[in-house]
Design brief:
The complex is a heterodimer of chains A (107) and B (292).
Chain A lengths: L3 E8 L2 E10 L1 H12 L5 E11 L1 H14 L2 E3 L3 H9 L8 E2 L2 H8 L3
Parallel strand pairs in A: 2-3, 3-4, 4-5
Antiparallel strand pairs in A: 1-2
Chain B lengths: L5 H4 L17 H8 L3 E5 L2 E5 L10 E3 L2 H14 L7 H13 L3 E5 L18 H12 L3 H4 L6 E5 L9 E4 L2 E4 L1 H4 L3 H19 L2 H16 L12 H10 L1 H15 L1 H9 L2 H17 L7
Parallel strand pairs in B: 4-5, 5-7
Antiparallel strand pairs in B: 1-2, 2-3, 6-7
Classes of the chains: A alpha/beta (107), B alpha/beta (292).
Amino acid sequence: MPSYALESETVEGTFVARLSGKLDREAGEALEHLLVGSHPPYVVNLSAVDYLSSSGVAALVKLTATKSIVIAAPADCVVDVLSLAGVGPILKIAADETTARESAQPS
Amino acid sequence: MLTMPEQVRALRHAWPSQCASLDGLTSDLEQEFRFGQRVTRTEQGFFMGGTMKGGSSSMWYPSTREDYRAFRRWQDVEGLQEGRDDEAFENLMTLARTHGIEVVTCRKANSRRSRPDPEPYSGYGEIYREVHGILSALPEAHLRRPELKRIQFGGWGPDAAKASAYHDRTVMMYDFACRGARRTFLGLFLHELGHVHEVCLSEATKDALAEHYHVLAAHDAFVGIEFLVDGNTRKLYQKFVFNEFLAETYMIYASCGSALRETIREFPAQARDAWQGVYDVFRESFSGIEYE
């Protein structure tokens, strides 16, 4: 049984993926697969993620570079891990999903 | 031509997996351990998580006795081993004192307020040995700098979980780095010294490097050395932040030496020329010293 759940919907033209549970290699690959089959702009809501592994960090960095994702509402423990990995400054992070959707829109 | 200590030179090679030789170690577990995750035994059972902010991380996941044993075996091979090495301690203190650098540790409860221990912790023997080896192989000019007044081992970052930092003329190797993998510690330490270096570069030198950097970014021609996170993530990290590229290049210049020169030769023409420009600037800033 997967240690994560992934759902998505398009909200006012923005593709929003919502992940919960553990963001590890398996979840990272599922997220990447989901985004490959959809259209930008992208928001990834991590508000219900309670564990971020190194593979999860790598997946978020890769999706930022290739898909320009905006991360919404990460929990403190997730922000800590991103900071620990030193990748915080290169990610686009918004405090909530609405702000993330606004930020994801092309200027 | 100078030579960095063996463990530092090992950064040029891919991080060898221990999965085949350590019972119970899977590639997923190994990746987590490399990232500083640990398996801890508690009264409630086994948990995997990070050692953030003095162990108060909320991010702990149930684990197993088998994973705990695999972690202990992995730690014996890859982790920094605590223990005294009085000779290494004296060597490092003497070298640091000679160049006006203070070495402190933050092991006690007051370290959360960034106050150093009254006396440096004696149990960081391996760290003292490795750090002395690195500093001994750097140009004297890199040690005798107003921008490097202190090296701190242990403690925690003021605002967020961090493995290491350079701030207020201090290289800080936090508890996370001191308790993790040897390779990660060495890479991070040289990376932070790279931040000392980049703030010392003149604006004209940085402008020249920035020109080459833009070419490298356009060609995705960065060099990724795996420690803490995988090589691809470290490449992307450099692509987004110029100062991180400079700090990372310092680490690569000093640790990879001949391997970096060989890698540069293998890049396509435009990236190769840009890299050669970067290399030449770094060689000059290392007082002409190159590394084996």
